[in-house]
């Protein structure tokens, strides 16, 4: 071209078709044509500047159409996701929040015909079961509250009954102790006085003394029981040599053993340390165990009192006898108050059944443990394990039901 500028040229070949031959056949046309013959060339010649503008316009149109299609696609996706995805999720979330606030009567109403509707139905079923379970639990709680109220009333009544019992035992014991002490004193004077030379009078006086001392021991046990149940048993903690307490106690109860020709033996191992405890309470524990062993051991039997260290900070005391033994099913009840294995009216050994119960309570008070090992026909071995350090205060139950 004459201007010499850059140009765009587009060419397109034109071929003869059957439709072309209908007008331009061989008989009527100056130039004969045949089907599929190259008839000519279509040429478009434009300046480059005009072509660039046209191309840019086309590109702008294409981009605008693409953006419009994208926006429309986003809008369609938003509508579909909001209607069929986000709306069910928001409803499930709302139901979950109301359930979390305690509203178990709320139900989901999703009806989309897909998995969301199935999830909604399952959630409603779960809420229905949860509501039924909560109603059953509330009913059980009401019944429990009623029973607890009844138990509280019973506990108050038991506490009052136990208080009255303790006051009665304490008052009666105190009222009995004073005249009983006088009776024992007069019996001793009668036995040792001028009239004591009469064998029959001396025998009567001795019987009065024995019966009076037994009754006084029972009264003392009752008073100790009252103090223990009330938590008013005082402790006097001091450094105690266990072997000295045991030696003195063995000599004290030896006359009881000699009457039945029972061999009473004390065995103390080396290295037994001094312990910080109440001397009187320790003596009472061992006395109850030794007197029980002598009482239940037949004539010409044996009773042993053993003391040995038990680890670094404990001492083990044991009382073993050759008595009839204790069946396994009876080894727990013997430590209960007013309980004895033989409850018959013709039992051979008389007593209140308080000795072992008091020994157990005193051992507990001193921070120790007590137990028994026995089998019928093989005697019994009662053991007490005490700490060498001073006992720490222990909490007791509010009401004793035994």
Give an overview of the whole structure:
There is one protein chain. The chain is an alpha+beta fold. It has three domains: 7-97, no CATH class; 104-232, Helix Hairpins (Orthogonal Bundle); 236-344 and 351-387, Histidine kinase-like ATPase, C-terminal domain (Heat Shock Protein 90). It contains seven helices and nine strands. The strands form three sheets. The chain has a five-stranded mixed β-sheet, covered by helices on one side. A hairpin with a 4-residue loop joins strand 6 (302-309) and strand 7 (314-321). The longest helix is centred in the middle third of the chain and has 78 residues, at 115-192. Mean pLDDT is 82; it is low at 343-347 and 397-402.
Order of SSEs: EHEHHHEHEEHEEHEE
Helix content: 40-55%
Helical segment count? 7
Mean residue pLDDT: 82
| Count of separate structural domains | 3
> What structural category arises from helix and sheet content?
alpha+beta
In the CATH scheme, the class of the largest domain would be Alpha Beta
**Main sheet characteristics:** 5 strands, mixed
Q: Nearest-angstrom radius of gyration?
A: 55 Å
The neighbouring-strand order within the major sheet is: 4-6-7-9-8
**What is the total tally of β strands?**
9
Q: What would CATH call the architecture of the largest domain? A: 2-Layer Sandwich
Shape, please? rod-shaped
CATH-level-4 superfamily name of the largest domain: Histidine kinase-like ATPase, C-terminal domain
Low-confidence stretches: 343-347, 397-402
């Amino acid at each position: 071209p004459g201007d010499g500028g850059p140009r765009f040229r587009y060419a397109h070949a034109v071929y003869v078709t059957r439709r072309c031959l209908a007008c331009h056949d061989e008989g009527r046309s100056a130039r004969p044509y045949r089907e599929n013959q190259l008839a000519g060339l279509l040429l478009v010649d434009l300046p480059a500047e005009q072509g660039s503008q046209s191309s840019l316009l086309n590109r702008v149109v294409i981009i605008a159409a693409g953006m419009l299609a994208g926006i429309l696609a986003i809008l369609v996706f938003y509508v579909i996701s909001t209607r069929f995805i986000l709306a069910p999720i928001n409803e499930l979330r709302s139901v979950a929040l109301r359930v979390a606030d305690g509203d178990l009567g709320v139900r989901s109403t999703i009806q989309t015909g897909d998995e969301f509707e199935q999830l909604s139905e399952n959630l409603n079923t779960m809420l229905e079961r949860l509501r039924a379970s909560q109603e059953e639990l509330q009913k059980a709680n009401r019944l429990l509250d009623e029973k607890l109220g009844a138990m509280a009333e019973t506990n108050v009544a038991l506490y009052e009954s136990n208080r009255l019992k303790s006051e009665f035992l304490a008052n009666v014991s105190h009222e009995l102790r004073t005249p009983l002490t006088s009776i024992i004193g007069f019996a001793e004077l009668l036995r040792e006085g001028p009239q004591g030379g009469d064998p029959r009078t001396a025998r009567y006086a001795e019987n009065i003394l024995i019966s009076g001392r037994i009754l006084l021991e029972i009264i003392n046990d009752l008073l100790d029981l009252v103090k223990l149940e009330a938590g008013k048993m005082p402790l006097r903690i001091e450094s105690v040599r266990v072997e000295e307490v045991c030696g003195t106690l063995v000599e004290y109860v030896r006359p009881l053993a000699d009457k039945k020709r029972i061999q009473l033996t004390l065995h103390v191992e080396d290295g037994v340390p001094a312990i910080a405890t109440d001397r009187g309470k320790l003596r009472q524990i061992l006395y109850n165990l030794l007197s029980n062993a002598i009482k239940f051991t037949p004539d010409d039997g044996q009773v042993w009192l053993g003391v040995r260290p038990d680890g670094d900070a404990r001492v083990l005391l044991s009382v073993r006898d050759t008595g009839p033994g204790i069946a396994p099913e009876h080894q727990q009840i013997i430590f209960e108050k007013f309980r004895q294995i033989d409850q018959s009216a013709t039992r051979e050994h008389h007593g209140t059944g308080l000795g072992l119960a008091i020994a157990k309570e005193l051992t507990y008070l001193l921070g120790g443990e007590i137990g028994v090992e026995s089998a019928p026909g093989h005697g019994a071995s009662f053991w007490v394990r005490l700490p060498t350090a001073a006992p720490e205060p222990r909490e007791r139950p509010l009401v004793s039901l035994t």
